[in-house]
Design a protein that fits this description.
Layout lengths: L1 H27 L13 E8 L6 H20 L7 E8 L4 H13 L5 E4 L3 H14 L2 E4 L14 E3 L4 H14 L5 E7 L3 H13 L6 E8 L7 H10 L3 E4 L3 H13 L5 E4 L6 H7 L7 E4 L8 H13 L7 H20 L4 H9 L4 E3 L2 E5 L5 E4 L1 E7 L2 E8 L4
Parallel strand pairs: 1-2, 1-3, 3-4, 4-5, 6-7, 6-8, 8-9, 9-10
Antiparallel strand pairs: 10-14, 11-12, 12-13, 14-15
Length: 395
Amino acid sequence: MRGNKITKISAIVLTLLLVLTLLGGCSSKPATPAPGNTASETIKIGFLGDLTGSVSMYGKPTLLGMKMAADEINAAGGVNGKKIEIVEADNRGDKQEGASVTQKFITRDKVVAVVGDPTTGITKVAAPICQKAEVVLLSAGATGTGVVELGDYVYRNTLLDSVAVPALVDYFTTTLNYKKVAVVTSVDNDFSVGLTQVFKDAIKGKDIQIVADEKIKDGDKDFSGQVTNIKAKNPDLIFFSAYYTEGALFMKEVRKQGLKVNMFGGDGLYSPTLIQLGGQALEGSMVYVGFSPEQPTPETAKFIDTFKAKNNGQLPGLFEAQGYDAVVMLAEAMKKANSIDPKVFKAELAKTKDYKGVSGTITIKDNREPIKSPVYLLEVKDGKFTLKAKVPVKG
């Protein structure tokens, strides 16, 4: 009997020691908070973009706008009692690095949302990663096709090519009386390929025809052959769907061969570097964007004044404005949902209607695509982008 009593007592003591050990182990190392976990001290939003590579002219200003929005939101009390923290990384304009950065944002930094990438190609790489992790991706720059189709956590706030191009085709044919156009596409650039297709679709049934359809690649420097072909067709306009570096060099060749025709393209051309590289050859060329500091709304005017005060009088551009709007839109969605959980606040983001952003009035449609109006058509005049026309969007 005594031996049985000792055995029972020993068993009880061992059980108690085991329980205490387990409790101590549980309390010594808290669980890593998942996205949206209220245990997080800040609301982390990742910046996905290029800071040192070939398209850093889009990434750097986007980040600047995001930080400005976060500072203003935090100064006003934050979101649901928490401050916003912008987590940044440089993807160097590389798709593989873009995927790696996105994964690190999710697994290491525990972001609740990612803003970016400003380019369509890297956005398409990041979107499936965010979708699988149930983290909101809001691109403040990707304008090409096939983006939001990648998942219901994927949004954007930029002026879409599919919205802008049809409006501008009407403007070119009715107001400027263009009849013949040469098309130039960078065949290894997702943005360029997609934009060219949008343009070709937009001119169907219109009184305008493609007289030359030339192909280039990103990084090309010699465009003499393509320009020679275009010269023989005598177009009214060159539709150039690629980026600013190649656009500048292309127009220098155009002028070298004596053509007076001007270039037109999307926000892939919208960079001071376009004018710096191309100089006088760019005079008269046009780009379309969803933002212009000229003829501003009250919201845009306030943003411009604040930005200039913080940046030595520098004027903000499209990507600063869209980066700013992206953070504010996410913050507003979290406030309305009373949650920082992406699974919860994404529904409020989807309800965005007539948001008076600094980059324009934004409504998110049922397919998570934005509608913005008007389209700002900018022309290079006296070495800088100036407003040529505000073209309304139909529908």
